[in-house]
């Protein structure tokens, strides 16, 4: 599976180090065995005697010096690469902290806009519609122009109401107030209405935990982006969404895991996925939550998206 979120794997790194050391030892032992079998030292002495006039027997010392020089050169390059790596890691940490702050600020701004739209703009539209209906009621029935104008006002107000509701739903899904289960069920239902040729199965495992705002939005946006990509980039006929809530309260933090699987990709390619802004955003959201976001092929002809992040024990219902 290809990792969209490149995570640290110290166990794999240790395996590679041990493998390289074993390779060096094997080459050393093999060299000794070959030297023992073919008497390489004696053969080298005999060969160097033939070229004594060119001081061939002294060749071993400059070669040794050259080998030591290569070791020194490699060590210098290693120190430089290590310094660059540390600087890059520091820069990455600073960038992720910046993204974290930007995400929080964006969320606060969205909540503020939602409140203003709901508490001010939507209320004023309701009042405007009420006044228009009142004018229709008290206006003379024979004044058709006034009646037609007020009806146009009502129609425009209803249109603005619809745009406002759509904006509110885009900025923050209203059903998140009632938990991730209800919000995701509504999301999948709405998506299924517009993609009736794709069978979508949604399953929840375990008891729903009490998630904070960031965790709720990360789960919701991940499923939303995953379904959007399936509709745009695959020829899927079946989609499975599985959400595993932690049930073991003995281990803290427990892991919450999402699997989103489709069967519509014959040849999985990583590059378009790595450069997709939506999935990059999800990767960063997962990183902020100290979680992981992976995406890769799912045999025989599908793609599996996996998101997991820890939640504290006290958050488990």
Q: What is the CATH first-level class name of the largest domain?
A: Alpha Beta
The strands making up the biggest β-sheet line up spatially as 1-2-3-5-4
Looking at this structure, what is the CATH superfamily of the largest domain? Histidine kinase-like ATPase, C-terminal domain
| Whole-number total of structural domains | 3
Rg over CA atoms, rounded to whole Å, is: 33 Å
Mean pLDDT across every amino acid position = 82
Helix content: 55-70%
Our count of helices gives 8
The fraction of residues assigned to DSSP E strands is 5-15%
H/E series, N to C? HHHHHEHEEHHEE
Your description of this structure?
The chain has helices at 10-38, 40-50, 60-138, 144-171, 180-194, 213-233, 271-274, 277-288, and strands at residues 199-205, 238-244, 254-262, 292-298, 302-311. The chain has 317 residues and is α+β, with helices and mostly antiparallel strands. It has 3 domains: 14-92, no CATH class; 103-171; 176-310, Histidine kinase-like ATPase, C-terminal domain (Heat Shock Protein 90, 2-Layer Sandwich). A 5-stranded mixed beta sheet has the order 1-2-3-5-4. α6 links the parallel β1 (199-205) and β2 (238-244). α3 (60-138) runs antiparallel to α4, α3 packs across α8 (277-288) and α6 (213-233) packs antiparallel against α8 (277-288). The relative contact order is 0.10. The model is unreliable at 1-10 (pLDDT under 50).
